[in-house]
Design brief:
With 492 residues, the protein is an alpha/beta fold. It has 22 helices and eleven strands. The chain has a seven-stranded mixed beta sheet, with helices on both faces. The chain has a four-stranded parallel beta sheet with strand order 5-4-3-6, sandwiched between helices. α5 packs across α9 and α12 crosses α15. The chain is globular and about 65 Å long. InterPro entries: Cys_Synth/Cystath_Beta-Synth, TrpB-like_PALP, TrpB-like_PALP_sf.
Amino acid sequence: MSYNIIDLTVNEKQLESAVERAREKEIVIPTFAEMKDPSKVPAKIKEKLASVGLWDVDPLNLFRITWKNEPVKDGGLYDGVNFVELPESLTGVKARIFALVGKWFPTGAHKVGATFGCLAPRLVTGQFDPVNQRAVWPSTGNYCRGGAYNAQLLGCESIAILPEGMSRERFEWLKKVAGEVIATPGSESNVKEIFDKTWELRKTRDDVVIFNQFDEMGNPLWHYVVTGNAIEEMLEQVMGKDDRYFGCAFTTGSAGTIACGDYMKELFPASKIAASEALQCPTLLWNGWGAHRIEGIGDKHVPWVHNVKNTDMIIDVDDEDSMAWIRLFNEPAGKDYLKKKGVPEDLVDSLDLVGISGAANIISCIKMAKYYELTEKDVLVTVLTDSMELYNSRLAEMEEEFGPYGEIDAAVDFHQHIKGLSVDYMQELSYRDRKRVHDLKYYTWVEQQGKSMEELDAQWYDAENYWGEIHGMADKIDEKIREFNDKTGLLK
């Protein structure tokens, strides 16, 4: 059965408008294949990138939507997969933990990939008119930043929607990029308030198109194809013949990134996928709710795009642990203490690559390693979605609240929030456990957001075909992108 989940029907009139806008602004659109393998990027694009900064609002930076950017802020090209290994001296576990680094994407976060996966298919088919419509990006932070940025690069106007309690850096940067910024009540876990605002816009404005990361299948598709491939290449570099890829763990947020676990499970069928969330908002674990401080993940619902049937474990992370990590990793006293405890100096000096949700992802891997009693032959993978470049205001706020950070603080944080991590608040999922989590989608998506029961059931009872159709869409989208680029004539 075909589900037509990512619609590639062409609207010829609006496509003409999109092509003309692209020609006018000299916009060439990259393919998924080029984001996986930047060696396929046209030479004339690479030549021009040499003079473009990583965060510049320049259409050329569409070709930096990849895990393989050279780790520099200006003029870089491509230099293999960006990743770090977190050794036992830091994690306290024997398992080898690797994390892809999101800092070296434009905007400093990997969400530019997810937003590209949502916007590009509609743009190159004419389903979105960049001249007469505005792209709406509902998010708890990085997604609307990435969406507003990509919209600028693709010649589109945008509206960013995010909770008022997000970090100051997010709002300050968005004001420079998004045409309009709307702050909704609450913080990370107040997702319904964001959805309510999108319905208000739908009903009151005829020039908006909603790109909701929680139900747009272009989000998990991008991660399945591009992030999954990056992990595969990383493992080819780091794994020995006796090593075993055990699995991956990700805070679900919109549940886009976790789709790379589906890709990895096809390569390693015995591997496991863990979905983690904030303990303060235990929706997956206990059908619970609450507020938390792990910026970058939104809760109180199960995202429509989450392939729950392929998820093996739930891990709840205490936000106290994540917040302690960012002080330990970034305060001078914390860095000095880590070096004294034998953490390699070059790693300590690069721990600002770990943002708040990145810390939660590593914590999830540590808890997973302890639960399964993994050894030095086992490999776990996660991602650092962004870096501390987006959260320096949080460090200032914590210093104001708790005072200066000294060696005793560092010792407490190291032993309590790293070495003291336990296997509490975790659950291996049986068939019925997975079905319980999947069934939670009904309340948000069928009752509130207008999805059908038929498609909800298809995600579960016809899961292989349903998710397989999504995973197979990249080549079809690439064909439409090439046709679009041919129409503009900019690559001739």
